[in-house]
Amino acid sequence: MNEMAEQAQDGTVYSEAEDQAHQPPYQFAAYRSSLQRGPSQALIHLPSLYDGFEYGQAVEGQAHLGARFRCRDKERDLIRNGSHGGPPIGERIVVSGRVLDANGAPVVGALVEIWQANASGRYLHKVDQHDAPLDPNFLGAGRCISDRDGGYRFYTIKPGAYPWQNHANAWRPQHIHFSVLGNSLGQRLVTQMYFPGDPLLALDPIFGAVPRAAAARLISSFDLGITEPEFALGYRFDIVLAGTRATPAEEDAES
After folding, report:
1. CATH code: domain of residue 125
2. Which residues are catalytic?
């Protein structure tokens, strides 16, 4: 795939190698666990898997994996999908955007999933033993299918920062994890969305691993047009799957 090139609508020609120049490295010294979990050898190229298919086309064919899922409307509403008789605690927000391909065209039928900490900065997961309260009305996970415009929309609670023991007094910025699944299991992007103005961004080695030219693509933007009056502030986060404007991937996921 590294030898293949694509031409965007604006005439820009890029290659997959150029895409990688905007991605974080598999191993980044300041992000300690990446040294243990990231691959230390060159990746193995398997061109035979792509024989007969155009760049970006699914190996399994053209049927969207997302079409195999039946996402209910409630699944994209994290304010309601974990409720047991009351609303979750925290600032309500709307997170919305579009899933786009390298040429800026909408990606229809992609399965978009999110997971996050609650307003206190704790995940509903047995591994998370952070000394912060769990919210009995917040599941912290949701999913939806991108529409004909590539659009997605989630209602959720703004996550809190939390300590993560990577280095002395280390805290993760507020963030939401995203997974976008396309036509095949090989077409999956995992990334993180951050919030504008967070002072912890400059101190975070995971965010710092992303090349400077691409880092801003991981920060959402406040959008009054998405904001719902008297209910929730709106944040826009568009996801570009490939090309020189691609959203950087999360190469070595943490909790």
Report:
1. 2.60.130.10
2. 123, 162, 172, 175, 177
